[in-house]
């Protein structure tokens, strides 16, 4: 159903000022709408033939045929029924235009959000880095989740982390089980593999279409590898510091990245390189995509952050340990009770991944409760309404992905 069908009462009064008002649907929602109508309803339309000819709160009840016989532009229809999606389809099939010829009563808007979130027919993909299991439908891999059916299936086995869209239908998947990056076609079939350094524990992945380069986060090296997307050749390594040389082990724990414009953004547990000492001074850092020179911190004071992502012209990130997703420096887009990691958007809703929490002790005293559930949240940005899609027997969700064709 078109968003144009949702008008407020002032907009209804303006568009219906020279028309008779007809309501479709008797009952509670008609009663609630009556005080706000610009004029009393001329009649009520209802699909139930048993009600035709009756009167409800002073308004006669008519069959849809009565409405179809009205001259074009003579009436404005206000839908006052929870079956508004099917009724809107009936009206549209008869040439009525949402927003111009009909709308849904504003008193049903909250219910409309519930229906939109509950009935959203999308498909979302997510990566799982759990160890392999005998059960083919659990353990690590790339999964497909059908929101309406509430069913998920593993479509690529492995131990993947980051996934990103490439040119056309291509996508790229970091998969430690193949030692690098899978190059995948439109059906997620593997077309080839681009190698990454051994024992680098690759995680997040970014892609720049302009340069046709991939940016693979290599936590074990405290670096980000710059890879030619055609040849797979490693063009450069962006080092976070020289601490790994002296310590012999990584100190910053970078995890995810994204390329946007002329900048590369990456999240890490510790900007200073002291997270192993308990200093979780997490940040989103920025580099120039041409020179690979550092530009400094974009966001600081984060607690085990992940998933820097540009959506709608805004940089988003997950402050994972706090269970928050943000898209400005001072506002929280959404807050959850679990460890959030993985973020995507389909043009209407956000999708937020939540992993089984492994850091209960660290959150004691800083959270009212701690969720141990894994799954995907469907989030409506305007109302902050969410619906949780649980995925059983899965621990670590790393990335959430919506193909370009589905946005």
Describe the structure.
- It is a single chain.
- By secondary structure, the chain is mainly β.
- The protein folds into 2 domains: 3-118, 3-Layer(aba) Sandwich (Rossmann fold), CATH 3.40.50.720; 121-406, 6 Propeller (Neuraminidase), CATH 2.120.10.30.
- It is built from 7 helices and 30 strands.
- It has helices at 9-15, 28-33, 64-68, 84-93, 109-119, 243-247, 360-363, and strands at 20-24, 43-45, 55-56, 59-62, 75-79, 102-104, 123-128, 141-146, 151-157, 160-165, 171-175, 180-184, 190-195, 205-208, 213-218, 223-228, 234-239, 254-260, 263-268, 282-288, 294-302, 306-311, 314-319, 324-326, 332-335, 339-345, 350-355, 375-379, 386-390, 397-401.
- The strands form 7 sheets. A 6-stranded mixed sheet has the order 3-4-2-1-5-6.
- The protein is elongated, with a radius of gyration of 26 Å.
- It starts with 8 loop residues before the first helix and ends in a 6-residue tail after the last strand.
Neighbour order of strands in the largest sheet: 3-4-2-1-5-6
The number of strands is: 30
Overall shape: it is elongated
Instruction: Please state the average pLDDT score.
Output: 94
The profile of the biggest β sheet is:
6 strands, mixed
Report the CATH superfamily of the largest domain. TolB, C-terminal domain
CATH fold naming of the largest domain: Neuraminidase
What is the helix content?
Answer: 10-25%
| DSSP summary: helix tally | 7
Strand content: 35-45%
* Count of structural domains: 2
